[in-house]
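[agent] plan:
  1. take the single chain provided in the ticket
  2. run structure prediction with default settings
  3. attach structure tokens to the ticket
  4. add a short note for the reviewer (M.T.)
[agent] executing step 1
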Amino acid sequence: MNEELKEILKKQHYAIVGNHSGVKLCHWMRQSLLFGRECYKQTFYGIESHRCLQMTPTINQCTQNCLFCWRYQGFTELEIENPDDPEFILEESIKAQRKLITGFKGDERCDQRKWREANDPKHVACSLTGEPTLYPRLGEFFETCHKRGMTTFLVTNGTNPEALEKLDPLPTQLYISVVAPNKDIYKKLTRPLIPDGWERLQRTLELLPSLDTRTVIRHTLVNGWNMDEAYIDEYAKLDEKASPMFIEPKGFVLVGQSRQRMTLNNMPSHEQVMSFGKKLADKLGYFFANEKEDSRVVLLSKNKKVERINKQS
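[agent] step 2 finished; step 3 output follows
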């Protein structure tokens, strides 16, 4: 990673870990510590917001340059030549998070019990930026997390099916981002850096039913781009292929770097997300399980009861 990129990321409050990883406090960490508000992952699945470590092993590696992405898009690499050790990445990521939350302790609004617990994270959200499956030792990293009693979420754009086929162990919950109903919109909206991104995503969707873990399809909905009612049938065909446990239609939010490429008009209301989700659920025969208005997201579930992740201690 070059020094110019490091300086840009540090100014954006990233903590750089090793040669290719990074940590950044989630918005909901602050909300939980200071105001007692929880993120939708806690509402839906039981993950405690203040004990979540948001990180990535691929801070400068990705296969897409999505128009709606709110992270810094300085991606210049598609592979990692000398990958850091998984135990090093986890240990240094935890240390980085502890440093990032130090200042909260002195804020009179901070829940001191939560702050102490936040220094001992119990969940890893491997989703911060980049494409995590490009880290070739990802399975070893999850094994390291699980040995420490930590649960893991992986968010991937689905363009690296070979990595998912080999991934052992799998994360506690696996998200595949399906942000377009068809190839034409996919190419325009995600601006893939590889020529066969759509085809590789299809292979990942076909692979998903065989993976022995909790599976989620994430539809990031961008008004004027990918959420017209006419696309419901196309999304349903993709979702049927993947047969996930859960589907999360989630509205795009105009924050960060996305402000350079999108406008307020591209942000759907929660009501629009709700309408989309209910129509998709009806089409697939899924249950409309939950919603979180402040995150503009709804949860569709294959089963009526949503099994929550084991409660953290």
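[agent] step 4 note for reviewer: The longest strand covers residues 214-221.
[agent] ticket updated
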